[in-house]
């Protein structure tokens, strides 16, 4: 059913990092293990990513998506938040500034170290695989768990289920991700794609990521025991398509 073991490269599409309306051209790259290649790309790209985030070079984040996730989190008035795939920790710092206890977890040691060095004391180093297997203790009873552009792999259901188990009663999961329609660039189906980071400063390794249609997102949440309670499409007023998809889900009864 899915396009496994290969990556469709859509050049000029709305990318993970920025938005572009140029028409895609399609080529296919062999990829025997995109899931581990994905995390490996973050090990390679960590320094360039820190520079990109901290220099504010990702326009869609400054204009739309940073504010969107902050508002979605704050609107639930959580006391304690887990930031899954926290990267260099910008959201941890933003939440702390707003008086919210924020704990981070990420699978890349350089990013975790950068988050800690920037002032976030509670940042765990763990891969999603380790979180699924519960081999690392990252705390529990979170009022809210958020994942900001951090669910990029295909097999997300076990991770969503593991996060579901860490929520406090009344808690919620907030996911911001690429808007599947905007990012699909005319090929609206589940499947591996590739982010090439074209146009960004630094040395980047291409990153495979898994495009999931809207119905596929909702099905994955459902299979992880979660129920969609809100869906937003954050958009800049001068852009023709949304910058992201924002999903809020709660444990199903
Ligand atoms: C696009 S970055 C987003 C970082 C952060 N949430 C932000 O908003 O800047 C994706 C993050 O997911 C993390 N990640 C990707 N795959 C992972 C895995 N298998 N285990 C743990 N972390 C992973 C990466 O290390 C990276 O920090």
What number of domains? Answer: 1
Number of helices: 8
CATH topology: Rossmann fold
- CATH architecture tag: 3-Layer(aba) Sandwich
Order of helices and strands: EEHHEHEHEHEHEHEEHEE
Classified by CATH, the class is Alpha Beta
Indicate the percent of residues in helices. Answer: 25-40%
Could you describe the largest sheet, including whether it forms a barrel?
A: 7 strands, mixed
Number of strand elements: 11
CATH H-level superfamily: Vaccinia Virus protein VP39
How far the N terminus sits from the C terminus, by CA atoms, comes to 30 Å
What Rg do the Cα atoms give? 17 Å
Which cofactor or ligand species appear? S-adenosylmethionine
- Binned strand content: 25-35%
What is the overall pLDDT average?
90
List low-confidence stretches.
1-14, 18-30
The strands making up the biggest β-sheet line up spatially as 5-4-3-6-7-11-10
Walk me through this protein's architecture.
The chain is of the alpha/beta class and 253 residues long. It has a single domain (6-251), classed as Vaccinia Virus protein VP39 (Rossmann fold, 3-Layer(aba) Sandwich). 33% of the residues lie in helices and 27% in strands. The strands form 3 sheets. Strands 5-4-3-6-7-11-10 form a 7-stranded mixed sheet, with helices on both faces. The chain has a two-stranded antiparallel sheet with strand order 1-2. Strands 8-9 form a two-stranded antiparallel ribbon. Helix 1 runs parallel beside helix 4 (109-117). The longest helix is centred in the first third of the chain and has 21 residues, at 34-54. It is globular, with a radius of gyration of 17 Å. The two termini are 30 Å apart. Bound molecules: S-adenosylmethionine. Residues 38-39, 42, 53, 85-87, 90-91, 106-108, 111, 127-128, 148-150, 152 line the site of S-adenosylmethionine.
């Amino acid at each position: 059913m899915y396009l496994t073991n290969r990556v469709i490269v859509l050049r000029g599409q709305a990318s993970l990092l920025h938005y572009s309306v140029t028409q895609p051209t399609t080529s296919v790259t062999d990829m025997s293990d995109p899931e581990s290649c994905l995390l490996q790309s973050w090990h390679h790209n960590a320094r360039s990513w820190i520079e990109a985030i901290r220099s504010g070079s990702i326009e869609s984040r400054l204009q739309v998506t940073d504010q969107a996730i902050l508002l979605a989190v704050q609107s639930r008035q959580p006391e304690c938040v887990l930031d899954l795939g926290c990267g260099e920790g910008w959201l941890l710092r933003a939440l702390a500034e707003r008086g919210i206890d924020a704990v981070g977890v990420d699978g890349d040691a350089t990013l975790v170290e950068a988050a800690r060095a920037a002032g976030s004391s509670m940042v765990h180093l763990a891969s999603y695989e380790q979180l699924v297997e519960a081999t690392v203790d990252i705390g529990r009873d979170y009022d809210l768990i958020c994942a900001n552009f951090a669910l990029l792999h295909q097999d997300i259901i076990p991770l969503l289920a593991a996060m579901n188990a860490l929520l406090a009663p009344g808690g919620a999961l907030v996911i911001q991700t690429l808007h599947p329609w905007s990012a699909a660039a005319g090929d609206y189906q589940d499947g591996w794609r590739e982010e090439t980071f074209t146009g960004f400063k630094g040395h980047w390794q291409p990153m495979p990521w898994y495009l999931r249609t809207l119905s596929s997102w909702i099905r994955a949440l459902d299979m992880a025991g979660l129920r969609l309670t809100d869906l937003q499409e954050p958009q800049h007023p001068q852009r023709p398509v949304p910058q992201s998809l924002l999903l809020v889900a709660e444990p199903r009864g």
